[in-house]
Amino acid sequence: MIYFTQLIYLKPGGEDAFQEFESLAIPLIPKYNGTLLLRLRPGDEAIIEKNMDAPYEVHLVSFPSDADFQNFMKDPERKKFLHLKENSIESSILIKGTKL
Q: What is the mean pLDDT, run by run of 10 residues, along the chain of 100 residues?
């Protein structure tokens, strides 16, 4: 099992487009054997210490293989609405890992 943690930073005013993108992309994850394990929006009260900007959202997703993840990323339906992602997300950090 491979785990992906994504820290997502939005452009100012990008919340609505981002939510629309998520409403279309997240349902596609199981099609590629993936599972959205956690989706959270950390508020300032949840941050104990930081040396970087806090993300708008944090996602933790698992896929059985890297091939499953790559197939999700290449999904033709997902590609149709990538413009929503591009219009709303300033930057993101993707962390790939395995369970220890």
A: 98 96 96 98 91 96 97 96 95 95
